[in-house]
Amino acid sequence: MPVPHPFPYQGSKRAIASDILRYLPRDTDRLIEPFCGSAAVSIAASAQGLAREFWLNDLNEPLMRLWSSILDTPEEIAGSYMALWVAQRPDRKAFFDKVRRQFNRSPRPDLLLYLLARIVKGSVRYSATGEFNQSADNRRSGMRPPKMRQQILGVSLLLAGKTKLTSVDFREVVRQATERDTIYLDPPYQGTSYTRDHRYSQGMPFDELVEELSEMNGRDLSYILSYDGRTGDKTYGKPLPTELGLFHMTISAGRSTQATLQGERLETVESLYLSPALVERLGVGSLHDKGETQWGQMELLPG
How far apart are the C-alpha atoms of 115 and 273, rounded to whole Å? Predict the structure, then answer.
């Protein structure tokens, strides 16, 4: 059956979640997403019965309040969304702008859900002052309420009662992880933070990430990291230090949406890194059997 997803979110790993989950150990007690966003990997993992517990975290507090509503009061948030969806007639553009202003004054979960359902390509944007400033896709009305309710109830069924929700710095989450957990890290890519678009409400300095990965290695934590990649000949992100000893591979994520909007047909390739502890836990032989290439310390970003 299709895996439910209540809202689109640019950068979501929904399309490649099954590829990522190939490297989730079958003895995982808890799957942790310190940068959860749309939580696509955890939702897929729960749908496949690959973990017993989950921890979703994101510094975007309104987003985590939305997740709390989806998991704890799904009927209520579905009803609130329906009321907003119906009220947008007859002028969807003016109504979207009104809701966006309301959200920036009072970031209610239902307002955020409506905005996420209406924005262009699920591409979240924040101003320099932290206000939601993305425009609406005025060609569409957003997901219809019956389907939205179905998606919300589906996710609640998969994650409610076995998921911890927080909105703290990712390091606070990681430092509570154990060797029996598996951590999926999907931090903001370089080039998508600290720009005029402010795609993310918080950035991720490269040196801070590398320092934390090194500490995680020292604690023998199992983690999967999505961090950089390329579209056509353009690469994103400074290569991670070879000293981290990460097992690296690439995953095809299909045609680039941004390139398509610009009239180009370019493939997006995303990088996936496995920690040394995770490789040992999975067994290097099993990875080779799957036909993967062990880049290791030889090359972190091929091509």
Answer: 33
Residue 299, domain member (yes or no): no
At residue 237, the pLDDT reads 67
pLDDT confidence tier of residue 12, bands split at 50, 70 and 90? confident
Q: Which residues of 196-232 are buried (b: 16+ CB within 10 A; e: fewer)?
A: eebbbbbbbeeeebeebbeebbeeebbbbbbbbbbbe
Domain that holds residue 136: 68-154
| In the chain, % of residues over pLDDT 90 | 67
CA angle 26, 28, 32 (to 5 degrees): 135
Return phi, psi of residue 188, to 5°. -60, 130
Q: For the segment 157-214, what is each residue's pLDDT rounded down to a tens digit? A: 999 999 999 999 999 999 999 999 999 999 986 544 444 434 445 567 889 999 999 9
Q: Are 33 and 39 in contact (CB under 8 A)?
A: yes
Residues 269 and 168 in one domain: yes
Contacts of 130 (CB under 8 A, 6+ apart): 201
The structural domain count of the chain equals 2
For residue 119, what is the domain's CATH number?
1.10.1020.10
